[in-house]
Write a structure and sequence with these properties.
- By secondary structure, the chain is α/β, with parallel strands linked by helices.
- It has one domain: Aspartate Aminotransferase, domain 2 (3-Layer(aba) Sandwich).
- Helix content is 37%, strand content 16%.
- The strands form 3 sheets. Strands 1-9-8-5-4-2-3-13 form an 8-stranded mixed beta sheet, with helices on both faces.
- Strand 4, helix 6 and strand 5 form a beta-alpha-beta unit.
- Helix 2 runs parallel beside helix 8.
- The protein is globular and about 60 Å long.
- The relative contact order is 0.19.
- The structure holds pyridoxal-5'-phosphate (PLP).
C-alpha cells in the first residue's frame, strides 16, 4: 500500500475556527471591523507591542512598514538575498533598491559583521529577516542602525512565537521576549498557511511608534498620506476571527515543534541542523538541514520524494531570480551554498510517529 504524502505543513484548524467564522457571518459584517480590531489587540498583548495593525498579507506588511519608516524611490535598503522573494520585492515596491549582504552559515540569517560596509549615504533602512523563524541578531544589527541613523524593519513573516533574550527592560523574569515586541522600528508577520498560525492569507505590523502605526492604518485602507497613495491592504473580519483562535493555539504549536526538532536532531546525526544562538528560541516554522555537498542534498531530496515525503531545496536567493538580479551586492557565497546544500524537511502540525519515521528513513538512506 502506498503511504499518503507527508506534507510540508498542515495548518491546525478545528471546530473553534469554524464557529468563529460562523459568528462573523451571522453578524452581517465581514470586512475589516470589530474582529480585526480585537485580533490586533490580542496580537499586541501576546507579543508585548504598543501597536499592531492587521493587513492582507506579510508582503503588504513589509511594503507598508518600509514606506512608514520613510523608504522612497532612490533609497537603498540593506537586506539579505537569502529569503523568500517577497523580502526583496517589498523594497522594490517602494521604488528603492535592495543591497544584499551575505548570511551566517549556521543561522541562515543576516551576518551583522557585513551590514556596516553595505551602508551608503543612500541607505534609508535595514530590513533583517528571522529566516524560517530563527531570530536574527537584533542587538548587533540594531546597534549599526542606530549608529548610522537608519531605520530597522524586521521581516518576521516566519517568526510568530519565536523569542529573544534581551536586556533587563521589564521582560519576564526569565528575560525572554517575543519577536514583535519592539526591538526595531517595525516587525512584519505573515499568516500564510505555511506559517505556524494562519488566516488563509494575512499579515500584521507591530511597532512602538504611534506615527508608523497611524500611517499604516491610513495606507491600508485608501488613505493618502505623506505623498503616498492609499491601497486596499485590509484584512477581513472573517480572517481576523480565525486569527484570534489560531493565536490561542500558538504556544502549544511552538512546544510541539521544539519537541519534533529535538527528536529529529537526535535521530539524524549525519546532517547539520541550524544553530540556535544562546539568546534565541526559534519557533521552528521551517526546518532546514545541511548536507555535506550539493550532490548529497539532491540525492536526499530524491530519496524523500520516492518515499512520498514532501521536501524542498534550501531557501532561494533573490539575486539568483530574474526579477531581482540587478540588486546591489557583494559576493554572497554563504547564501549560494545554503540554497544548494540544504533541504527543507516537512514539519506538519500533529506530525505522527509514522510520518517522522519516514522522514528519518529517507534522509538517512
Ligand atoms: C521571509 C518571508 N517574508 C515575506 C513573506 C511574505 O508573506 P506573505 O506570503 O504573507 O505575503 C514570506 C512568506 O510567505 C516569507 O517567508
Amino acid at each position: 500500500m502506498r503511504h499518503p504524502q507527508v506534507p510540508m505543513a498542515r495548518p491546525l484548524m478545528g471546530p473553534e475556527e469554524a464557529a468563529a467564522v460562523a459568528r462573523v457571518l451571522a453578524s452581517g459584517w465581514v470586512m475589516q471591523g470589530p474582529e480585526v480590531e480585537a485580533f490586533e489587540a490580542d496580537f499586541a498583548r501576546a507579543v508585548g507591542a504598543p501597536h499592531a495593525a492587521a493587513v492582507s498579507s506579510g508582503t503588504a506588511a513589509l511594503h507598508l512598514a518600509l514606506l512608514a519608516v520613510g523608504v522612497r524611490p532612490g533609497d537603498e535598503v540593506v537586506t539579505v538575498s537569502h529569503s523568500f522573494i517577497a523580502t526583496a520585492n517589498s523594497v522594490r515596491l517602494c521604488g528603492a533598491t535592495p543591497v544584499f549582504v551575505d548570511i551566517e552559515a549556521g543561522t541562515f540569517n543576516m551576518d551583522p559583521a557585513r551590514v556596516e560596509a553595505a551602508i551608503t549615504p543612500h541607505t534609508r533602512a535595514i530590513l533583517c529577516v528571522h529566516q524560517m523563524g530563527m531570530p536574527c541578531d537584533l542587538a548587533a544589527i540594531g546597534a549599526v542602525a542606530t549608529a548610522r541613523g537608519v531605520a530597522l524593519v524586521e521581516d518576521a513573516a516566519c517568526a510568530a512565537g519565536s523569542e529573544v533574550r534581551a536586556g533587563s527592560d521589564g521582560a519576564g523574569s526569565d528575560g525572554w521576549q517575543a519577536i514583535g515586541r519592539p526591538h526595531s522600528d517595525a516587525a512584519c508577520f505573515s499568516f500564510h498557511p505555511r506559517k505556524l498560525i494562519t488566516t488563509g492569507d494575512g499579515g500584521m505590523v507591530t511597532t512602538r511608534d504611534a506615527a508608523v502605526d497611524e500611517r499604516i492604518r491610513a495606507w491600508r485602507s485608501h488613505g493618502t498620506r505623506d505623498g503616498v497613495y492609499g491601497l486596499n491592504y485590509r484584512m477581513t473580519d472573517l480572517q481576523a476571527a480565525v486569527g484570534r483562535v489560531q493565536l490561542g493555539r500558538l504556544p502549544g504549536l511552538v512546544v510541539e515543534r521544539r519537541r519534533l526538532v529535538e527528536e529529529l536532531r537526535r535521530r539524524l546525526p549525519t546532517v547539520a541542523f541550524p544553530v540556535e544562538p544562546l539568546w534565541a528560541r526559534s519557533n521552528w516554522q521551517s526546518l532546514c538541514v545541511r548536507f555535506s555537498s550539493a550532490n548529497a542534498a539532491a540525492a536526499a531530496r530524491a530519496r524523500l520524494e520516492a518515499a512520498g515525503v514532501a521536501a524542498r531545496p534550501g531557501i532561494t536567493n533573490a539575486h539568483e531570480e530574474p526579477a531581482q538580479r540587478d540588486g546591489l551586492r557583494a559576493p554572497l557565497p554563504e547564501s549560494e551554498r545554503a540554497h544548494r546544500e540544504c533541504v527543507l524537511l516537512p514539519l506538519p502540525s500533529g506530525m505522527t510517529a509514522d510520518e517522522l519515521n519516514r522522514v528519518v528513513g529517507a534522509v538517512e538512506g
